[in-house]
Amino acid sequence: xxxxxxxxxxxxxxxxxxxxxxxxxxxxxxxxxxxxxxxxxxxxxxxxxxxxxxxxxxxxxxxxxxxxxxxxxxxxxxxxxxxxxxxxxxxxxxxxxxxxxxxxxxxxxxxxxxxxxxxxxxxxxxxxxxxxxxxxxxxxxxxxxxxxxxxxxxxxxxxxxxxxxxxxxxxxxxxxxxxxxxxxxxxxxxxxxxxxxxxxxxxxxxxxxxxxxxxxxxxxxxxxxxxxxxxxxxxxxxxxxxxxxxxxxxxxxxxxxxxxxxxxxxxxxxxxxxxxxxxxxxxxxxxxxxxxxxxxxxxxxxxxxxxxxxxxxxxxxxxxxxxxxxxxxxxxxxxxxxxxxxxxxxxxxxxxxxxxxxxxxxxxxxxxxxxxxxxxxxxxxxxxxxxxxxxxxxxxxxxxxxxxxxxxxxxxxxxxxxxxxxxxxxxxxxxxxxxxxxxxxxxxxxxxxxxxxxxxxxxxxxxxxxxxxxxxxxxxxxxxxxxxxxxxxxxxxxxxxxxxxxxxxxxxxxxxxxxxxxxxxxxxxxxxxxxxxxxxxxxxxxxxxxxxxxxxxxxxxxxxxxxxxxxxxxxxxxxxxxxxxxxxxxxxxxxxxxxxxxxxxxxxxxxxxxxxxxxxxxxxxxxxxxxxxxxxxxxxxxxxxxxxxxxxxxxxxxxxxxxxxxxxxxxxxxxxxx
Length: 674
Description:
Chitobiase, domain 2, Alpha-d-glucuronidase, C-terminal Domain, 3 domains, five-stranded mixed sheet, 15 strands
């Protein structure tokens, strides 16, 4: 099926209620439309209440009809879902061509109404979120840069009043989030500037909160723990100092006066140079509880990140557990400890963090990274829903009350840089709502709502298979059988297993993780001969990963320093397995390119060409990864790679992209360097 690339002008239906429609209809690129509803005549909507979220749902339905057959929608507040404000029920009456959405609150009506835009969604059903908190974390800085952002500059500008263009953008952003099930956003970087808490910026944040509120989205802020010293004139930020706690209480009161539904604070403390309570001889719990008390009367929450590691610890993967496990049960009720999905740092594959087992008395939030810091930035296709599904299948969820995702959003026209990265934003929201959803169903759901894709039957199946396999291909050519953190220093784009810049911390360097030598490769985390990280996991997993012969092969070199000639279950040696996986990753990207080319007639021409070029870059990068790693490790071990490299090891070791942490390298730059 061919897709039309024309953009139909329907200015007559633009309404003051949804002013961002003008930008949506006249977008230069079709991927700027995200997964927003197709514009049409709208439908008749009945709603008798005054709730702001339900009224927003009514306006959206009146502008975009979700179904050609059903022409009437009733939004009804009932006691049917008392106790779950976001739950809803959809009842369909085919005879009268009407749909009734019932919920106990306007937020439930909003989510029920927006669910009607999914493919074949006008059916009898009920739904409710598994996780109460489904929050984007923007790592956006005051100067407009985005740490680990690969889609342009920040969409926020806290130093100036909001413009009408920005308001339209924020409304589009809000609707996209609400349709995915996301209900909160942390608007600034966890490496927070104290200036975020100045009066002018708080006032500007309040204006954004006003725009997002009708879509059921709360605003949160990252705060710098030393703000009382930086902007408050105090000589300390000791959480047990009465003047410090009074300063935070006054600041919280100030925020809630103008943002009455403000969500709360996100804090990165005593990590990577950020200040925290440990600077004053206090614990993470004492610091978090002080902030929790300051916002407690306002029903705000404190999300306290567990991403901590010491340069002197023998194993970075153990540090979060070592610091936070002893504090289990000491955090206030409105504190949520935010834990990365894995124990190191958003690698393409990690075992789940042992903290999900180790904190039974504390509310937890799982933190994912939607932006592709370690998965090829905005150049590589890596559909991340299978990775997150793997986490949900393996990690205990007993105390998890929320899911956070480090956003991949910037001011590029399509907001995500790579067009297919939009699927990760959408999938994050859907899995945060319901972790039991199948990643294959989510990508089909997203593709049906995406205007630049028109797929049915085998074409849709082929596209789904391509997306479903994409992350595993990245794992194969970046970190096979548990190798990890082999990335270039600083910007983390491309392979650099040899890097050793002067003055760098050991646990920032690939050698710390791969530990390759003449005898073998991998990080020994066993209790018998290694760091003992396996002891942080419960039985029977502990015994399974402790034994090199029963450890899942996908985690083999994460937990073991294996001899080069160690035999895997299929009879291959470690060296042979590494060669096979690197080649499999390359072949997988080639297969994705072939699939993409077969789908050309189903894709908008401009976006097809864009993604085709990025897939070519990804294929070249995969070869670069194989050659760099196998030549380097082979040189150490005295082993020869199965396939000859395109460049010598010396040539590859001289590659320097010269980019910062905010930049996605262009294909032209990469071709000139690698």
